[in-house]
Amino acid sequence: MAEFDMGLVQRGARNRRTPYYEATQRYGPLGFTVYNHMYFPIRFDTFEAEFDALLNAVTIWDVAVERCLEVSGPDGFRFAQLLTPRDLSRCAVGQAKYVLICDSDGGVVNDPVMTRMDENTFWFALASSDALLFARGLRNAYPDLDVTLREADVAPVQIQGPKSKDLVRDLVGESILDLKYYRWRRAEVRGIPVVITRTGWTSEVGYEIYLLDSTRGTELWETLMEVGRPYGVKPTGPSDIRRIEGGILNWGADMTIDDNAFEIGLERLVDLGLADDACISIAAYRRIAAAGVARRLVGVEIDGAPFTGLNNVTWPASHDGEVVGRVTSAIYSPRLGRNIGYCWVPTALAGDGTILSVASEWGERRATIAPMPFVDPAKRIPVS
Predict the structure, then answer these.
(1) Domains (ranges, CATH) in the chain?
(2) What's the rounded Cα separation, in Å, for the pair 194 and 206?
(3) Residue-wise over 122-156: b if at least 16 C-beta within 10 A, else e?
(4) Selection from 56, 62, 70 nearest residue 209 by Cα
(5) How far apart are CA 282 and CA 162, in angstroms?
(6) Positions of E strands within 111-177
(7) pTM
(8) Residue 313 CB-density burial (10 A; 0-12 exposed, 13-18 middle, 19+ buried)
(9) What pLDDT, in 10s, does the model give residues 110-139?
(10) What confidence category does residue 103 fall into, taking pLDDT thresholds of 50, 70 and 90?
(11) Is-cis flag, bond preceding 143, omega within 30?
(12) Residue 253's CB: how many other CB atoms inside 10 A?
């Protein structure tokens, strides 16, 4: 029996198009996924070609699917802090932070980049999840708070790679080079209002441009292609090779609401000094910190021939003949010359050098737990 042609999957108005959708069609996208109920181009070339462009030139990709939960109003700070165990008083207006949105058990609901737009207004750029509904439900539990929640009509596009600074400088002027890592500022691109942040999902030097007028997506996209042409600009999808090299996690694949910050190695995003009533997850995190965790997400290097793509499903991982965990993301890194990925294992087996057997889509493979990030562990590249 012939396999079902996924190109026949129904498309309709309930799956929205980003402001850049029409523009991206001109550059031959080779695939789409649905992310936060929007069409998301996943690649325009091979994984390896897009990886090469990211490392050596400059790439742009449509991440308007990262819908922004906007928290505002007189009690905006108070409500934003309820969502995350990271101390937001340490985030200045004009600054951004990588945060976790967590439930009362410490489960990770989402892992957005948060920008503080003013004293009481925050944007949370969401991974594909129901975090907006989660926030609305939490709002009902605090009826006395004067807070407004909405999906902000902003559409980010990423500009990433070593020549991203050249592109952005030519786009808005020399002063943008003074923008520090995880900071933002307002600007105009040929009259188009935008917010520019020094952030990205690549572990490379990069920026994100948040389009504030969604009617001008095609105009902004084509401007980026024009200005970036001298620097070899290339439209791409997300580089899973580079994000796995850099230890960047993908919510829904590598962790979900059933996992907590300590298990995924992001305890640095939990400020245990917060008061119990400041954040809905902090009491749970104090208990987790005291008790320890039974399992962890670790890096693995996987032997054998190069994988021909990103894994489509999780893979069982065994130790001494017993299934003990699962590989969540795995891909071949041309730079490292080996297959790399992430794997959930019991804490007792989480030490570097532990040998596992992985039932991959390309056959049974030997895997070794290894430190991550696999490249640039001090994260010096994106800050440079």
Answers:
(1) 16-241 (3.30.1360.120), 244-373 (2.40.30.110)
(2) 16
(3) bbbbbbbbebbebbeebbeeeeeeebebeebebbb
(4) 62
(5) 38
(6) 113-118, 121-125, 148-152, 155-160
(7) 0.96
(8) exposed
(9) 999 999 999 999 999 999 999 999 999 999
(10) very high
(11) no
(12) 16
Dump pLDDT digits (tens) for 143-181. 999 999 999 999 999 999 999 999 999 999 999 999 999
Cα–Cα distance between 161 and 59 in angstroms, integer? 6
The tens digit of pLDDT for each residue in 221-265 reads 999 999 999 999 999 999 999 999 999 999 999 999 999 999 999
The rounded distance, in Å, linking the Cα atoms of 105 and 214 is 37
Q: Does the CA dihedral 181-182-183-186 come out positive or negative?
A: positive
Rounded Cα–Cα distance for residues 247 and 259 (Å): 17
Q: Which two tokens stand for residue 377?
A: 């562990």
**Exposed, middle or buried: residue 184 (CB in 10 Å: 0-12, 13-18, 19+)?**
buried
**Burial (CB count within 10 angstroms: exposed 0-12, middle 13-18, buried 19+), residue 7:** exposed
What's the mean pLDDT in 66-71? 97
155 is written with which tokens? Answer: 């559409």
Buried residues in 363-380 as b, exposed as e (16+ CB within 10 A): eebebebbebbbbbeeee
Q: Provide the token pair at 382.
A: 């994106």
Spatial distance between the Cα atoms of 84 and 107, rounded to a whole number of angstroms? 11
d(CA 293, CA 371) in angstroms, rounded, equals: 19
